[in-house]
């Protein structure tokens, strides 16, 4: 008994204690800051009531209380309490070297943030690469942190794997090998607001285990997303799930160059494609084809270049002499910022540009490695850039094809010759894909390209078909109670205006919805013939019309801008395609991406007096009804003879018969509160 008591006494005096396994070591003795050193900023650290307290001061630099000792593999546990309004973190495997930013602390940080609590538990690379594991990857872990009171943290760092837990909830699972060993640091973040000066971050019960870690490692969570930052490497978890590398990091085995003359080669563990002078895009394509999959890759683009990654793509001799065509995920280093968009290469053009989803336009980082993810399952294709969802698209044109890395032609910009696009860490999952798809994100607009259908997401969001694709149900002639007996036809899922050759007697006339609408989003696909003129009108009152002409309402203009004389009339192009007819011209910094004599998509948004016109997912018109400016525009237009034009609270939606052949389909509406 005396011998056992003596052993326990010695262990406690050394701040070492064990509970049925390898010993834990205390990092804080509860009395003073022995074994710790303050680095960087001016924040105050001191001991109070058996806890370490960090107090904020106004200043520009973050402050850190760091262990004198470095740690490699370990399990770290501590409790933490943060005053409201503060941001903090715990550095692990971190360094302070004179040859790196004048000795400033850098390395892995476990985030602790009361201002954006859903980020707490994520892993940030302080003063190096930024976010490595964002908590968007783990919705369950986003709610683990409690803003008020003490929170229990656990960090497991073993080999290249780092896992974090808050209040026993798993938060982050990261694979990275940049730093294998370093100190632990308690952060007091810099503040700029005076009202935050003097606030506190508190830590207690800090302990670490560095031996016998195998017995103490937490169980696996198969459904939890793991982020792997090591290029061209699969972790044990990724292998178990079924991921495969598309690039071995050494050579181009399994790949084939198609179309242009740009060279591809392996450089520093990455595939590099180099621009040349030539008329064609060049693609490095997988020999294997893929249907349903999750694809991940990293890409870095030299300044001035544009690139993309083909998915479910084809090269057939019976189509443009074998030219590569199919879905391309855009990788855009320009100010346009369309990375993550989907282009149908050498086929239908732009299918979804991220102007429709403005939050995605900040995702791509110029001059840096960017991580892309593509989820293709059934008819659904979704894209992500650096963890931000960019595109959610439904389409059924191609269900299977190869993956291709694009070097875009440079055209007349000869100064771009010799610049490079680089890819690394290309991996693909083709088994049990459905189980690993990202959760549905209702904040990302979905584009459904399958005619006259509603996807599951559209239905959940409240979209309804305004035309069923088969009958005239829900529609009537503007000035009658029934659908026109001539001038319109329904054929192959299309609602078609029959050309009358300018003869009013042959026209069917405008058609309107039986129902009136107030606040809504309206989508209509349309295809016009050469020289055609038509329109989509809203806030329509069928009692107001121009003699034999069309019924009056705010009009989304449909026009062949190249061949119809109305293009030259009006003021500053306010009678062109997608304009608010005779009032506001359609304009976008990147022009109009019009699919000539093919299907285009109109999207009209009405929220009270605020109205927007979109063409193929690009905003063209934005205005507010009922204002002084609105009434001034009306006064100078042909509508000045109608009192309070365009200011009705609600009205019918109208498709115009202007005597020219125009096709409509996929007419759908979502009513807004």
Q: Provide the domain count.
A: 3
Name of the level-1 CATH class of the largest domain: Mainly Beta
Report the radius of gyration as a whole number of Å: 31 Å
Mean pLDDT: 93
Shape: globular
Distance between the termini: 77 Å
- Summarize the biggest pleated sheet: 10 strands, mixed
Strand element count: 46
State the CATH superfamily name of the largest domain. Exo-inulinase, domain 1
CATH architecture of the largest domain: Sandwich
Specify the number of helices: 4
The percent range for strand residues is 35-45%
The residue ranges in which pLDDT falls below 50 over 5 or more consecutive positions are 1-14
